[in-house]
Amino acid sequence: MTKEATFTFHNGVEIPNIGFGTWQIPNEEAYAAVTTALENGYTHIDTALAYQNEENVGKAVHDFGLAREKVFITSKLPAQIKGYDETLQAFDETISNLGVDYLDLYLIHAPWPWTEIGKDCTEGNIQSWKAMEKLYNDGKIRAIGVSNFSETDIQALLDTCDIVPMANQIPFYIGRDQESLLSFCKQQNIVVEAYSPLATGQILNSPVILEMAEKYGVTPAQLCIRYCLDRETLPLPKSTNESRIIENSQLNFTISPEDVKALDAIEDVRDN
Q: Which GO terms of the molecular function aspect are on file (predicted)?
């Protein structure tokens, strides 16, 4: 879909460089959305147990008919689930929902429950990670990682566990480049995945983005997604609209270093 086909994790596993995100897509809409994405060349699908759409995500992948190894599937351990046995149970639920024998990537969805953001769950995360290491070593997951983890959260795993996370999926977009965290992950050879690359649409009317998109002859959304790639992060755009699903993958251009710097300088324009 773009010049670069994949990112490569530190264990050698390759992941397609654009993922189709399914956050906030209800289960009843997920089948059609994922099918449309697959029809238009996406081979990397990102879901989570918490999204409550794994069943139809898996059914769409199965019904589309590509060989299992041709579709990269990511899911996530719910943020509130911490602990060794609890993680194994949640993984089994995800595998059952999706109707697959293995996952390509499994992530701890967040270092703390969404209802208790900032809570210290270090010991629970360590136990969950050890369970994921077992699943990885047993061949049930090709790569393991985290999501929404800070440098401190990741360091706690590095200090106590055997496997360095292969990915950290974080909110990353123009105006929120998380420079320190991105640098830390690069030092540890952790691939950064950029979710909400369009900031849920809140940055698309930025005058700088609009003007630059016109300069490159692309849409503001395409510029925002390309920015993530040019910052060496893996974008996960989401849409249920076929034309936008297609548009979001048509990124055969690069942004000049000077223009990337100009985009870096934009401040977070979200309301919150």
A: oxidoreductase activity, acting on the CH-OH group of donors, NAD or NADP as acceptor
Mind listing the pLDDT tens digit for each residue in 220-231? 999 999 999 999
Query: In this model, does residue 3 exceed pLDDT 60?
Result: no
Distance CA 77, CA 163 (A): 17
**Per the residue annotation, which of 51, 136, 195, 227 is the catalytic one?**
51
pLDDT of residue 270: 52
Helix (H, G, I), strand (E, B) or coil at 8: strand
Domains and CATH numbers, the chain: 6-201+232-240 (3.20.20.100)
- Residue 102 designated active-site: no
CA distances from residue 246 to 185, 239, 251, 266 in whole angstroms, order as listed: 30, 10, 10, 27
CA distances, 124 to each of 108, 115, 116, 121 (Å): 11, 16, 14, 5
Q: CA nearest 109: which of 86, 80, 89?
A: 80
> Was 109 annotated as part of a binding site?
yes
pLDDT digits (tens, 9 = 90+) for 17-50: 999 999 999 999 999 999 999 999 999 999 999 9
Q: Are 170 and 178 in contact (CB under 8 A)?
A: yes
